[in-house]
Amino acid sequence: METQAYPKWQLALDSAAIALFALFGALLIYSGITSFAVTSQNSEFLAAKILLMVLAAWLSADFVSGLVHFLADNFGNPDTPFFGKVFIYAFREHHVDPKAITRHSFIETNGANCLVSLPPMIYIWVATSPTHDYLLRLYFVLFFLSIFLTNQIHKWSHMDSPPRLVGALQSAHVILPVAHHAVHHAAPHDKYYCITCGWLNAPLERLHFFQAIRKLLK
To answer: Is the distance from CB of 140 to CB of 124 less than 8 angstroms?
Structure first.
C-alpha cells in the first residue's frame, strides 16, 4: 500500500474534533463535579456504583475498539468515501508498517476517535440531566475518555521505549500490552482486534465472535 501524506483538510478536521471533544468533555466533567453532592445524598452505595461504571466504560471501549478495528480491517477500502481516508486507511497502513503510528503526531493519532465520539457526546450533554442521570452521564464520560485514549494506547504498544508509567500499566495489563497486541500482528491479522486494554480479546476469540460477524456480513 502506498503511504499517503497527512492532508491539511484532515489536520484541520482532527484539530477541530479534538478541541470540541475537550470542550464538551470539560462541560460534562464540570457538571458531574458540581452535581456530586446532590447525587451522593440521594444514592446508596454510590462508590460501588461509580467503580462499576468505571469497569463498564473501560470494557465497553475495549469492545468498541475491537469492533471498529475489525470492520476497518475487513470491509471497505481506503477509497471508500470519507470513511476510507479518515478511518480505513490508517488501519490498513498499520499492517504494512506497524511502526508508522509511532511517527504520527498527537492530532493525527487521536483526531478520528474524537470526531466519532462528538455526536453522542453532544447528545448526552443536551439530552440528560446532571443530577437525575448522574450515573448514566458518568458512564458515558468515562466511555468517551476511554475511546479517546484508545489510539494513544495503541500507539504506545508499538513504541520501543514508551513512558515509564505507560510501561508499568502495560506490564500490569491495565492497558494494551505489547506482547498481547503482537498476536493481532501475526498474519493473517484476524484475531485480537480489541486495542484499549485487550481484556476482551481472549473471550471473543473463544466465542469466534468476529468470525461469525464476518460470515454474517460477507
So the answer is: yes
Residue 122 inside a domain? The answer is: yes
Rounded to whole angstroms, the Cα distance separating 114 from 82 reads 16
C-alpha span between 133 and 212 (Å, rounded)? 35
Is residue 205 one of the residues assigned to a domain?
yes
Measured CA angle at 211 (ends 205, 212), to 5 deg: 110
Length of the chain: 218
The whole model's pTM is what? 0.91
Q: Which domain holds residue 71?
A: 8-217
Number of domains the chain is built from: 1
Whole-angstrom distance, CA of residue 101 vs CA of residue 203? 27
Answer yes or no: are the C-beta atoms of 35 and 130 closer than 8 Å. Answer: yes
* pLDDT tens by residue, 42-68: 677 888 989 999 999 999 999 999 999
What pLDDT is attached to residue 172?
A: 98
Angle at 191 between CA 176 and CA 67, to 5 degrees: 75
CA distance 192 to 15: 30
The HSE-up count of residue 114 (CA atoms within 13 Å, CB side) is 23
